[in-house]
Amino acid sequence: MTAAIPLFDRAEFLDRLERLRQSMRERSADVMLLDDIEILAYFTGYERSISYYRACLVPLEGEPLMVLRSLDAAPFLETAWFDQHVGYADAEDPVALLATEIARRWGTGVRLGMDFGSHGMTVDVYRRLQAALPGAAFVDMTNVPWELRLLKSPLEIRHIEQASAIADRTMREMTERARPGMSGRDLAAYAACRYIELGALPGHVGPITYGKGWGFLHGHLHDTPMQSGDVLHIELVPRFRGYSARLMRSVVMGRPSDEQRETAERLAALQDAQIAAMVPGASARDIDALLRDGVVRAGLRDTYENITGYTLGYYSQQPVRSSDFTRVFGPHADWTLQAGMVFHMYTSAKGLAFSETVLVESDGPRRLTRLERKLYATE
């Protein structure tokens, strides 16, 4: 199922690196330090948790340098597009080694680009680098690596399309399988199995919960059996080689009420109108308002305090962030859409929810998740 989609080659990584280097030149940075999990994966092909500190140093010219545990050298060499690295034993100090390599290779007066929003760049790591490199200038490049991931390449889009197909198929099977008496754990176990069988990575399957009313959509996984009248909320987040698609649907245990059917139809219609307006150059604030204001005007919600969409792309297997909010749709969203952006667009009201994975193309939006948009039920 996955063999037809090639892996990212050296040329793709070099293109990513050149865009990073252009940003470095604009800020007069000599070397960029990368240490967030997703950012390392995007620019190097290698992903590892931050249990032990590790970082990649990208100079304006020449091959990057990876500083990491010696124990992790083999998986690094297996997955990264370059091989220059320095390893440290677990009893050694990785930050001291990092500072030594920076000074030795680029001098004590280096201008070092830093993403101060990185979860790897703790206050302690930053202070120790300052102390070890007193002549260095630390150039603020906060969020720059994340911004550079926003426009997806054709091969990245193929990865997200594959994840979307996995989400569609798994969701369809789960809506057919769900019955009163089953638990959330039963359904989560099924989804986890299907992810692996269909080519997705193992791990978190997404929020699967149920209840009555409104406040359960971000609820927990339950072992108790579903009862007639419960609404099952399924959000699937499969990752194909790390690239995530997302899809939400609701399943009523039993026969839906007229109010539930009407709510679902109106929600789907409002979101359809929102998605249809997602063209290059459109204002994210205006796109958000189409749904946000429409839902409130329709009387489906009294207030709408959450965002209505956010960035999709590569998500770590060991996540610190469960969602990528580099771009979000809300009343404060002062940015415009561009071709190549991919988003998780979602809405909810009265305990029901819909969401889709949406690609912005040059001629307009395209839903990458294709499952029928309706309220599902066991009767």
TrEMBL record:
Superkingdom of the organism of origin: Bacteria
Signal peptide annotation: none
Residues annotated as domain Peptidase M24: 159-360
Residue ranges occupied by any Creatinase N-terminal domain in the UniProt entry: 16-150
Pfam families: Creatinase_N, Peptidase_M24
Name of the protein described by the UniProt record: Creatininase
